[in-house]
Each structure stands twice: as structure tokens, then as C-alpha cells.
Amino acid sequence: MNIIGKERALEENRLSEAFEKLSKRISDLETSLQTSAERLKKSNEQMWESGKRSLVDFSDAIENMSYLDNIKLDFFEVEMTKKELNRMRLLHRDMYFGRIDFQEEDYPELEKIYIGKFSFTDDEGQYLVFDWRANICSLFYENELGQVSYEAPGGMIQGEMSKKRQYEIFYEEILSMFDSSVMIDDSILKDILSKSKDSRMSNIVETIQKEQNQAIRSTYSTIIVKGPAGCGKTSIAMHRAAWLMYKYKNELRNNQILIFSPNETFNDYISEVLPELGEENINMSTFQNLAYEILGRKKVLISKYVELEDTLLKNEYINKEDLVEKYSVRFADKLKDYANYISNKRYDFKDFYIDDNIVMSKRELEKLFYEEYSSNQVTTRLSKIKNILNERIKPYIRALRKEYVEDVKNNHVDMAQGFLDLRTKTGHIYRQIDLAIGTDYENIYAGFLESAYSKEMSERFLDRFFKGFIYAEDVAPLIYLRILFGERYAFNNNIRHLIIDEIQDYSYLEKLIIKKLFYNCHMTLLGDINQKINYYVEDVKEDTLFENANIIKLNKSYRSTYQIAKFCNNLLKDNLEIEYFNRQGREPELISTEGRGCDLEFIADIIKKKAETYKKMGYKSLAVITRTDSFSKKLQPYLKDANINRITERSTSYTKGRILLPSYLAKGLEFDAVIVVDCKEDSFDKDVELNLYYTACTRALHELCVIA
Fewer CB in a 10 Å sphere around the end CB: N or C, the chain? Predict the structure, then answer.
């Protein structure tokens, strides 16, 4: 119900007064920032003018500490003022978007709670705006009018909610107001969803739905959010990060939250959500980057996208049987059994010699490894043995040093050259120890492939490895092998909450690696099995690995028009019971290329005409989605005059406007209009690639066209 008359006048007066106070606060913060910045500058100048220059004198260093402490305090004040000023400026544009009237049980006064992106209090400490993340604000998102309750730090608060109001505000002007009794008004949500989109992902605090809010505010340590395309999983992930930083503000910092997303383009696409909410961005990465951290950068890791592309193209160097096996649970179990076998019975030791002298025999090495240190992890056992060897070689090292000194004294060798020779000799001994006691994971893995499968499978891996490549199918097994042998990594020590979007695309081994590496972390895992693009990877439900996780199922799709959402759902073999948001639009358009095959010029002409049509309709973003990157590359020259930019796996930024990309890189993105190219030369095999086709079609907000 729209608000008019006296009630509207009261609301406008209230906004005007609050806006004036906010404007004054911004002005005060700007002055404070200038003062703080000048103080910081003076503190730096004072240290340079009066501080001690000596870097070695302890008393001088102590004297400088007071200057450094002042600089730190001034710098902290500048940064905190900047952050608060940024938040107030963001609030200035649209001060609040919601209001609830709540009367607590046994409390005489009615509270009018105005809800915005951040809290704002006047000089007397009275709340003029409540942060959307505050406990009481959950009533706005989840409850109907009447008797309600919410959880506060001191326990459950009971009371009555007598009003729920929504606003559209631009600076000090109320553009519209609505009262609603049940949920966030559909007309506001419909208006937002109907707008043209040509930017990165934005926040949805004004329109968070009940089921989304429950996922965002879940207090379970690990949650698994499952839902169809367009239900808001990625938005939930980002808003949950913002909520966590608010709820645990004294315990959790932005650099302690890590999100694994599908690719770097997607990371850029979601990069503005948290800054819009006044929070610093969290760490963003991919599983591929994690693999490089562990396996090193001496080898090129062939990504799962390249692997999928090669599989779709049926390239000869992809062995489908290998893929299916290596991405199975059975393979992971066999690898674990082999690692245990190596650890307990068959580590390849040899007598360790220096200059024909046995320093440690094979028998002694085996006794230490299998008996004395058997309770330790493999890497710990080897480290302890290496320490013993380092002690035993000391006489040899001393002898080499003594020989060097004698040679220099007797002028048998130039001092500098002799020292270089000494370093070479001692370095060679230490390298011998590393080779004898180190863990050659790649050779162990090759041995496993030969022992458990075939010599041919092992040779295929080694051939690629010695050429400098590790293919995606072997990346997770090599990481898992390191973990099984007890390797530890420092990069995960600081992470306290891990978010993984598109979890359905992770293999069993990758999920197992995540579980083991981030065992101390709380987690938010989000996915949709119908958008699983690597059809040769065995399906494994996340809840079988993350046993204590709370599963949250969403069944309402908001992204697409009713017609597009229904078309996409009908593609699936098992139609989902999805509730579609009632936003009407045109039926998806199917354009036949029958008789023309994959005539690139003909297809490009269709695309260019459709692009102009969509432009006249007011749409700003268009994605032309092909099955493979190879076909995108072929099609691109024919679209050069249509201002369509091609996205590849190597792209690192989200491109506005019109883009051309393969199906598997479109995950998580959305566009006003989508043209899916499904022609004969690059046609989706609906028997095994249906999820890929479904993923491509569900990227459309308003218009969907399929060229087939």
C-alpha cells in the first residue's frame, strides 16, 4: 500500500531531519580526517627531525619507539575515520530502505526501527538507522505482522510487530513507500529485477528474502546451501561474509575469510558487493591457485577448464577412461591404501654413502622409519632421519673446511675460488641427503598408477610431467598424496571461515583436500547439482564429507523471467519443484540454422541483429554463449564490428556490455540478454552435457535466444 497524505509528510520530515544530521556527521568526519592526517604528517616529520638515526644502538632504538607508537596511533585513527566516512557517504545516498514498528513484551514504548546498510546514531546516541545485520532487523526479512520474536545476545525477545514499511530513497527524497504485511513487497523486488544490468554484482540488502536471510544469519559452523539457478546463492555467500564480520566484529577480520570461486573473472564480478556494504573485501581465490601454492610453479598446471574443453572437443590426448577413474571415489580410496602401504612396508631406501663410506645403511634407515618413528607422519619420520644424517656428516664437512684452510695457507688454491669449491662440495652432500631422504611424490604417484592400474596410465602421467605439465586429473591426487604423508601448509593458518561457491564442480578428492587443509575453519558451501559441468566427475554429496553441516535447501528462483525459468527447468530430465518469481516476459526465442549448418557469417548476422534489437529494448548487457572456447574463437572475427568482447579462461576482469564466452565460463554470471549458440559443429550433447546447456540458458535475466 502506497503512503500518502499526513503519514507521508511525517516520513518526509523525519528523513529531512535525519539527513541533515547525517550531512553534519559527514562534514565533521571530513574535518576530523583532515586533522588526523595533518597530525600523522607531523608525527612522521617529528621522528625524522628529532628521532635517532642509529640502527644498531639499543638506546636509540628505544627512544625511537615513542615516535613509532605515535605514528601507529595516528595512522590507526586516520584509517578508522576513513572507514567511517566511507560508510556515512554510502548511507547518504539512500539512508534507509525499511522500517518495522516493534513493541517488546512488557515494555511500554513502541520502537520504530529504520533499517539501512549501516547504523547511524545522533549526537545523543539515539539510533536513527539500524544496520540491516542487527538481530532485530531479521524481523523485517522473515516475519509477518503480529506476535514475533528474535534472538538477542541476552536471549529471545518477544513482542508485536505492527508495521512493516519499505522505501525507495534518493538522498533526502522519498521516491516511493509501501506498507506490506507478509514479506518484502513483490513490486519493489520486481522493479529491481526488471532493471537493465551492466555492472558487477550488487548488494541485495533491500530485497533479501526470508529463506535467503535464514542462510545468511545461520549460526551453524558449517552450512551447505543447495538451490536452483537464480535463487541467490552467490549473494547469500557475500552477504553472509558481511554478516559474519558484523556479528563477530571483535573476533573475525576480513583477511580471515576466504572465498574459492570458479575463476578470476567471477572474482572480479563479485568484488564490489562488500565495499558497497562498507566492508573491506575478503580474500578471493580459486582451487587452481591453491594447487599452485602446494605444487609450486615449476610445472604448468592444466586447469579443469582446459581439460573440459579438450574433452568436449574429443582431443586425442584426453583419455576418457583415465578421467572417469581418477575422478571417482574408488580412485581416492586406492590412493590412500597405497600411501599407507608405502608408509608401512615399502619406502624405497638405499645405503647412504659419502666417498665410498657408508654413513647410514639401508637397514638402519628402514629401522628408524618403520620402527622407531613409526608413530609419526611420513614427513616427520623423514625429517627426524635427516637430522640424524646431518649430525653424521659433520665430520665430513669439517674435514672439507680443514682441507680448504690448509690449501689456502699453502697457496694451493685462491681463497675466493677455494671457497666457491667448498660451497659446491658441501652443497652436493646436502643435496645427496635431500635426494636420499626426500619425498618424490610424482614418482610415488607414478608407481601407484602402475601398481593399481597399468603401466600405460603411469607412462601417460610421466610423459606429461617430464614435458613440464600436470594435467587437472592429476592435480588433486598429487596434493592428496602430500597430505597423506603429513605435509603441512602455512597459508591456511590465518583463515577462520571458508566460502566455496559452485561446490558441485569439485571432485571427491578436491572436497577431501578442502576438508583436511581447512579442518579448523567454519565453512559456507553453495551449489546446484544441476549446474555440475564436468559430467565425467563422480557425483558425491557434500553432506557425506561434511557430516555436521546444516543443509539449507532453496527452491525459489528470482533471476529470470517466469518464461525463461520455466523453459530452463523443462530442459532437465528430472524437473525440479522450483517456485518461479512471477516476473513476466517474452518466451525464449529459438532460431533454426537448418540447411545452413554452422555458417559462421549467417550466425554472426543473427547475433548482430539480435544485439541491436536488445539495445533498442533498453538492455545493456548481452552474452553470446558457445559450447566451447574453440568455437568462440572461430566466431569472434565475424563479430568484430558488433563491439563484442571475448572472455577466455585467462581473463581476469569482468567486461561490461557485450561479451562472447564458452558455456563453462558463464557460471555465476547474469546478463540482460543471452544468445546460446547450439549449432551442429558445436552442439551440446544433451545426453551428457545437459547441465552445461542448462547453465548457459539460465544466465538470462530478460531475454533468451537459442540459435540451433
Answer: N
What is the H or E stretch that residue 368 is in? none
User: pLDDT tens digits, residue range 345-384?
Assistant: 777 788 888 888 898 998 998 889 888 998 888 888 888 9
Sheet holding 589-591, edge to edge: 589-591, 700-707, 671-677, 622-626, 658-662, 644-646
What pTM did the predictor assign?
A: 0.88
Other CB atoms within 10 Å distance of the CB of residue 175: 9
81's grid cell = 575515520
Instruction: Look up cell 576482469; give the residue.
Output: 653
Q: Could you give the CA distance from residue 214 to residue 36 in angstroms, rounded to a whole number?
A: 41
In angstroms, rounded to a whole number, what is the distance separating the alpha carbons of residues 608 and 631?
A: 17
Q: Does the structure show a pLDDT above 70 at 597?
A: yes
Q: How far apart are CA 689 and CA 462, in angstroms?
A: 30
Beta-carbon-side half-sphere exposure of residue 372 (alpha carbons within 13 Å): 13
CA 430 vs CA 397, 418, 539: distances in Å: 10, 19, 46
Per DSSP, the three-state class of 518 is: coil
Determine contact, residues 269/667, Cβ cutoff 8 Å. no
Q: pLDDT for 606-653, tens place per residue?
A: 999 999 999 999 999 999 999 999 999 999 999 989 999 999 999 988
Provide the H-helix boundaries in 51-152: 58-93, 138-142
In what helix (H) or strand (E) does residue 662 lie, and over which residues does it extend?
Answer: strand 658-662
Q: Give buried/exposed letters for 357-377 (b at 16+ CB in 10 A, else e).
A: eebbeeebbeebbbeebeeeb
User: What type of residue is 669?
Assistant: L
| Three-class secondary structure of residue 700 per DSSP | strand
Q: Average pLDDT of the chain?
A: 91
Place of cell 579448523: 520
Task: Calculate the CA dihedral of residues 367, 371, 377, 382 and round it to 10 degrees.
Answer: -20
Contacts with 94 (C-beta within 8 Å, 6 or more apart), sequence order: 116, 168, 169, 170, 171
